[in-house]
Specification:
This protein has helices spanning 4-13, 28-45, 55-64, 71-82, 86-100, 102-109, 122-129, 134-144, 160-167, 173-185, 189-197, 204-210, 218-231, 243-255, 264-267, 275-289, 301-315, 317-325, 343-360, 380-391, 403-416, 419-427, 433-447, 459-462. By secondary structure, the chain is an all-alpha fold. The longest helix is centred in the first third of the chain and has 18 residues, at 28-45. The model is unreliable at 1-5 (pLDDT under 50). Keywords: Signal.
Length: 474
């Protein structure tokens, strides 16, 4: 029986958010400029550069620039030559599969065809499954060469079933059912289990179980099915035994709505019974369904601030700050000036930008007072000093020499919407990981205002910061 909360979720998951076309993208020049910075700086520092950079920048360059077909393999080859990060392999695999098709690759590779799928990632899985007959090719490969989990955590979206389900989360049930049947035919019940649970028809998983092919541990199958179902707004596949189990399903379903990175995963540290996190998840979803300020395909900013304020209203500022002061943040944002960077630091930066934006854009004539929610961890006088420079167009390249100031000024220029000044400031900054980090992060943020190619339904819940590179979306 679907509760009202899960019924709303299910209906909303059937609709995709409207995305702007990249043909009318005022951010395109900046997206490409920052992508070029990442690729150039990474090449300069390789092989000592952090491996996490390069793949997203290359993908955005491919999608936002009409590169000739012969240039794309060169771009990918340069990345693959020295970058050991798995997302680069995934990007290359997805582009080749989408551009040439697995049948052409099969003819070219001959007896070594199956080896081309060694280590296939989520983007390659999607590209292959979207081709006619791709489900049989993939399942035959996994039956012969079992998928290696992303890590040893056992989490639902690090194993083959969850990854396949996440890769095709936006596809219709008829498509998913073909994948389920192919998986069953090759004895891959973990995949059939998760994909059937991710169908919008809540009875699909029960039909899979009734067919009797799954002889695996029922508790394991149910555990993974609950995660896959939450991705599309389903309640647990079997009734919850405790209130905490039911709350966890609501949290997971809410997390599937969050853009980019999950705030709800941090909320679970607030109370052991998950009451506050579950209530925050409900408020987020209801706000989004009511066409609030949070967009599923947007950046995390509005979502995190909405959820933070909901959490404070429900639990009190003291409890939230105590938790977030010590809760590490390991996401992709912000210039780091120390080894300790917490969720509280993220909230502070989001609040500072939100507060100063009207002044930066000229909507307010004076610098606003320090927000009540802002902690003492942030240097408010420096933020206001830099805000005055940004507003007046008095940003000097010299400011980029100090890491903290560089991080502040770039955030404020982005908030002001002065892309020309932002590009110039970052381009003139000293080469190094700080410039790499900002260019990479801002390219992805700006892309969210256009075609949002890196957006994927359920991303904060299923991808955990990993990208999925899609070439099938317009």
């Amino acid at each position: 029986m679907l509760t009202g909360f899960f019924s709303l979720l299910l209906l909303s998951c059937l609709a995709s958010p409207a995305l702007a076309s990249d043909e009318f993208c005022p951010q395109r020049e900046t997206i490409l400029a920052f992508s070029d910075i990442v690729l150039a700086d990474w090449a300069t520092f390789a092989p000592s550069a952090p491996y996490r950079y390069g793949a997203e920048a290359a993908y955005l360059k491919i999608r936002y620039t009409p590169l000739p077909d012969e240039q794309i393999p060169v771009l990918l080859a340069n990345l693959l030559q020295q970058n050991k990060y798995a997302s680069v392999d995934d990007l290359a695999g997805a582009w080749y599969l989408h551009h040439f098709g697995y049948k052409a690759i099969q003819v070219s590779a001959g007896a070594k065809f199956d080896q081309t799928f060694s280590g296939i990632g989520i983007s390659g899985i999607r590209a292959l499954l979207l081709q006619e007959g791709g489900e049989d090719v993939l399942m035959k490969h996994f039956a012969a060469t079992p998928f290696m989990p992303l890590n040893d955590s056992g989490q639902a979206f690090t194993v083959e079933g969850g990854i396949v389900a996440a890769a095709i989360a936006d596809q219709p049930d008829e498509f998913k059912e073909r994948v389920v049947q192919a998986a069953e035919a090759h004895g891959l019940n973990d995949i059939a289990n998760s994909v059937s649970a991710s169908e919008t028809d809540p009875l699909a998983w029960h039909r899979f179980m009734a067919r009797g092919g799954a002889k695996d541990n029922l508790d394991k199958l149910t555990y993974y099915a609950n995660f896959a179902g939450a991705m599309v707004g389903h309640p647990r596949v079997k009734a919850a035994k405790t209130l905490k189990e039911e709350r966890l399903q609501r949290i997971m379903a809410g997390a599937a709505f969050e853009p980019q990175e999950s705030f709800l995963q941090h909320m679970r540290a607030v109370d052991r019974e998950d009451e506050i996190a579950a209530r925050v998840a409900e408020r987020l979803v209801l706000s989004m369904l009511d066409k609030g300020v949070v967009r599923r395909s947007g950046t995390m900013d509005a979502a995190w601030l909405f959820e933070y304020r909901a959490a404070v209203a429900l639990s009190g500022r003291s409890a939230i700050e105590t938790t977030f002061d010590s809760r590490p943040y390991d996401g992709n944002r912000y210039v780091r000036t120390s080894a300790v960077f917490t969720v509280r630091n993220v909230i502070d930066r989001l609040l500072a930008v939100e507060t100063l934006q009207p002044y930066l854009t000229g909507e307010a004539d004076t610098i606003p007072p320090k927000p009540e929610d802002l902690s003492n961890k942030i240097d408010w006088p420096r933020w206001t000093e830099m805000a005055a420079k940004v507003r007046d167009g008095a940003v000097s390249p010299i400011l980029a020499a100090d890491l903290e100031t560089f991080g502040i000024v770039t955030e404020l220029l982005l908030a002001k919407g002065d892309q020309e000044a932002l590009r110039a400031f970052v381009q003139q900054a000293p080469s190094g990981e700080a410039r790499l980090s900002v260019a990479n992060d801002f390219a992805m943020r700006l892309a969210r205002a256009c075609a949002a190619y890196l957006y994927h339904p359920g991303e904060a819940f299923t991808l955990n910061g990993r990208p999925i590179f899609k070439f099938d979306t317009p």
